[in-house]
Amino acid sequence: MRRLAQSFLAVAFGLALGLSATWIAGENPWEVLKILARGAFGSRENIGMTLFYTTPLIFTGLSVAVAFQAGLFNVGAEGQLNLGALAAAAIGALLPGLGWPMAPLLASLAALAAGTVWGAIPGWLRARRGSHEVIVTIMLNFVAVGLSTYVALYVLKNPESQNPETRPIGLAYMIPRLGVFGDAPVSAALPLALLVAAIVWVFLRRTALGYELRAVGQSEPAARAAGIDATKMRILAMAIAGGLAGLVGVAEVLGNAGKFKVEFSPQYGFIGIAVALLGRNEPIGIVAAALLFGALHQGTRELDFSTEHITSEVSLVFQGLIILAVSAEPVTNWFRSKPRINTDEL
Amino acid sequence: MISSGSEVAVELRGITKQFGSVLANAGVDLRVEPGTIQGLIGENGAGKSTAMKILYGLYRPDSGHILIRGQPQVWSSPRDAIAQGIGMVHQHFMLAGPYSALDNIILGAEGEGRGGRERRGSRVEGRGQPSGAMRREGAPDPRPPTLVRAWGILGRKHARERLEALAAQYRLSVDWEAPIEQLPVGIQQRVEILKLLYHRADVLILDEPTAVLTPQETNDLFANLKKLRDEGKTIIFVTHKLKEVMAFTDRVTVFRGGSVVGEALTSQTSPQELADLMVGRKVVLNVQAPPTQATGKAALEVEALVVSGTRGATHRVSNVTFSVRSGEIVGIAGVEGNGQSELLQALLHPREPQCRKAGRISITGMDVTQMTAREIRNLGVSLIPEDRLHEGLLPEWPLRDNFLLGLQHSAAFNRAGFICSSNLQAAAAKAVNEYDVRPANLALSAGNLSGGNQQKLIVAREFERRPKLLIAAQPTRGVDVGATEFIHRRIIKARDEGAGVLLVSSELEEIMALSDRILVMYEGRIAGEFAKGNFSESLLGLRMGGG
Amino acid sequence: MRVSRKLFALLVLFAACLSPSTAADFKVGLVLDRGGKDDKSFNSSAYEGANLAKSKLGIYLKYVEAADDNAFEPSLRAFAQRDFDLIIGIGFAQKEAVKKVASQFPQKHFAIVDSEVNVPNVRSLMFQEHEGAFLVGAIAAMTSKTGKVGFVGGMDIPLIRRFEMGYTAGAKRINPQVEVLANFVGVTSEAWNNPPKGKELALSQYDRGADVIFAAAGASGLGVFDAAEQKQKFAIGVDANQDWTKPGLILTSMLKRVDEAVFSTIEEAKAGKFSGGVKRFGLANNGVGYSFDQYNAKILSETVRQRADELKAEIMNGKIEVPDYYKLNR
Questions:
Q1: What would the pLDDT profile of B52-84 be if each residue is shown by its tens digit?
Q2: Which of A333, B93, C111, C265 has a Cα at 20 to 30 A from A19?
């Protein structure tokens, strides 16, 4: 509860800072806030676009969080989601004859599997070889982007377009859109993301395996002494993290574009780190944080339309300030009246 | 430098301090005479550290007065206390690792508020852990170099001269230029003490100073403190160890439940009297285990075990063979670092080459050398680890989840892979109650418990398995008197219920009181074996020293 | 109460400040590509054209920069839903978005640069890049002393291949033995904005003997110009007139008048003469060409220019057919 309040304070603090920045830029902060809110939630389509951006952020936020619960820092969600999306698009391009519902099911599993494999590699290297997962995942991001670009350009190229992208997948592959949001490409991937968040919560909090994974993250020596195989848990955590990031492919390819577009992701993987941080690595917090960042991303587009001095890059400023406020816990601690004590030090 | 003109160097009158719902100090009265060593003793959480932090200006009392040499004082920060000649060495040193001893003292002098203040609500750290790890928290920031240098050219030379004079006066030699993190813990502590002297402290408060020291370093510290007293300094020494208080204090004050419950000249009291005062009831200081009634089959057999050293030069454990039968307690005595830790690791992780190079281990008759830690634990092996905060607990997690650690696959708490919360809650509540873990709040983080209660929680959890083999390593290290008695009784009970117990301890008294047989480890070998009633402290001590 | 009244007054004032544009009766919305209006090449050129229309024709102009590919469609739609009369999408990446939104708003006018969209209310602004590239290829071959000329492309896509093919054909026209060294910065849109890589490629080409390099690489071209300065050899700019960036070293620039295309589209639409369909900009209507100004007057000789102009005339009257990568790879 206290941590929740802290996150809330951090968001408020970051927003306040960001709004003061817009004031310096010559805008009325209150107006800016209203435009932001309108841009994110002002119409069905705007809500839809907010939710559209929220969906991949739920997946990447969960990805970072699961790794973090095992004491690992997954900076590789960006690479994992690229390969997940590529795998989904590749199934669609290579097996055009498949019908519904086998087609989207198979493509989704491919996205999941590709991400899982890509996440398991750094997990394995960390657990068996001691290579630091941060370095490895960063490197694998480059490899993943290179690999997926190569496939998109030379193997499955879309001959109809100058864009670096794969051939479109068949209609049978597309998952249903949620019609209430007008033209916004909100698909069944959103309920899927919420379901996955719930599953992750149950896994982490209610299963023995999830308990062991978290125990390794808390204290490896203690987990080992209790008979938990830390090596296995690390690999498992990274594999799950990769799979979760790979599911972004379902939202992007099967729910939106119908193909893999090189550089489709506006850094979902990295924003996911902020989402996990703000959401305190808990699935419920992550859904809320993803919604916030999705709303910021979408809302700032409206700012671009409705103000003279603000462009969409201000979204990054807001995100940065909120992250700063979250990581600068002393600032929020300052608001706490009761000091924390422990009986040992009295 | 004797503060003349008054009999009392420091006096606290009716100090009361409340943290949330916890009354840490309830009307503490304390008088310390100049030129004496005053011991403050009490169980963890008795309020002695709080009283000292109030005296040092870290906390403000809710009510009550501080008097220095008879003059009432109001501190707003440690700066004020330091100005009045009060100095404090904290449990966790306030030194900046990469800087030299000299720089640490000078930088500290520049802004005591920066270097010397402990953060309020600072994290729980391992108590009684001989880790010696540097704490970077509260370390002075590197200042803009130009300023420091410009000031330093003159200041450094002066400071060094003064410090060398001080060091000579009190015979506290230190390598001034070596990075502080490379110095042994005992020397780091010496630097902290010199820092206080440099600040012209007359009253030195030391909060649990021996927790991080080896026995030899402890002896050096005591000798140095006596020298300081003889030079006229007043020393307040906070501890929960009876032996230390008896060894070298002049007077002793006993704390319990936030109040002072007794005061005496050390020469006129006894450990038993102090222990009873601390706990508030009659305690048995050394629970003597009656001889075992019946021993059964071997619970643990170790044959020709070898654990290789880091560079393969000398073996950490070489060719060790012994067995523990069910229904007996086998004690492994020895000075720490003679292969005990490596032996324990080998018992739990025999598959890993760095934990076992050669040799056979069987538990309850099963060869376990190719088993995983989980499989071994499932044979009915319970473990009270050496380093409870590191290996025994998940300090940030609630008691309930700590109780589950290692039991997450047991049939009682696991239904097809899912944790059965209601069973867990009930069992944990029952255990916490039975083992008297206080506070009995299952949602509280384990790190917030005192050392003794943490250990009781571990014992409760490990006994939940109904062990066939109990491995207890340093089971009462850093644990207060009351909890020690409790844990000893439990270990004996486990034996009487048929468990084989392997007890590893560096406390000779503990080994002698509990063991049916004693093995002495020296440089990775078994240097002697003694049956109950067949050993004396001096003989054991001789074997522990390699004789 | 007083406070809220003050606030209201403030808001009214604010709203008033925001809408000086309501005076302008013709509204143009510009959706820029990811590079943004300050990329100093393609997007900048489009923005300048629109800005010129704003000052000359008194239109109201609003532009947005897309944060990601999925933002094109809602941005275009947001313009359409408001009372914008003409909405222009810059760059082929917006093809599908323009197609979809234009179909949804048949009464609005749309335009797109560099891509063909076959919807009646969309004007596709297409450039004959190969023709312009042919001319600068010829200029390069005429200037080269080593018989080797270079080409540094940005992203390896058909559009840039079209530049390359035209450039090579122009050079061969002058000197059939000429050797054309061609490299591409990359395969993703990052290739438009990687000057170090551009410089590296150019240095390598100079070292292999090229003494003129054509940079068709967006901002990465700036790296090519740095290499030219380092080696004191010639480079050729692209899209906008870049002669001024390194006077005396930029032999010429192959102009691609996106600004002209945007301006003329706005002008016609404002005058009520908007028409859909493909509008091609080539040598004939000065949509492409090469630059000549005070910055390259000393290095681009009269004879070279005369020959280039002859070639231009021959292309326009059909005597020369410049190979078109688009047609050859259909």
A1: 999 998 888 899 888 888 888 888 888 888 888
A2: A333
Mutation site for C-interface testing, chosen from A165, A305, A310 by largest number of C Cβ within 10 Å: A305
Find the CB nearest A162 among C18, C65, C158.
C158
Neighbours of B314 (CB within 10 A): 11
Query: Are B365 and B489 contained in the same domain?
Result: yes
Q: Is B416 left (phi over 0), alpha (psi -120 to 50) or beta?
A: left
| Cα distance between residue B541 and residue B335, in whole Å | 9
User: Is B50 touching A (CB cutoff 8 A)?
Assistant: yes
Q: How far is C138 from chain A (nearest CA, A)?
A: 27
With beta carbons less than 8 A apart as the criterion, state whether A87 and A114 touch: yes
Same domain (yes/no): B144, B265: no
Cβ atoms B192, B95 nearer than 8 A: yes
Euclidean distance between CA atoms B56 and B78, whole angstroms: 6
What pTM does this model have? 0.79
CA nearest C94 in A: which residue?
A: A163
What was the ipTM of the complex prediction? 0.84
By C-alpha distance, the chain A residue nearest B240 is: A344
Instruction: State which residue of chain A sits closest to C67, comparing Cα positions.
Output: A312
CB contact under 8 A, A305 and C93: no
- What's the pLDDT at B154? 56
The residue count for chain A: 346
Candidates A207, A209, A214, A342, partner chain B, best to mutate (most B CBs within 10 A)? A342
Taking CA atoms, A337 is separated from A333, B198, B437, in Å, by 8, 36, 29
Number of domains comprising chain A: 1
**Two tokens at A243?**
């799979």
| Tokens at A51, concatenated | 């939710």
3-class SS letters over B439-468: CCCCCCEHHHCCHHHHHHHHHHHHHCCCCC
Q: pLDDT for A28-84, tens place per residue? A: 888 889 988 998 999 999 999 999 999 999 999 999 999 999 999 999 999 999 999
**Domain at C21-127+259-281, CATH homologous superfamily:** Response regulator (3.40.50.2300)
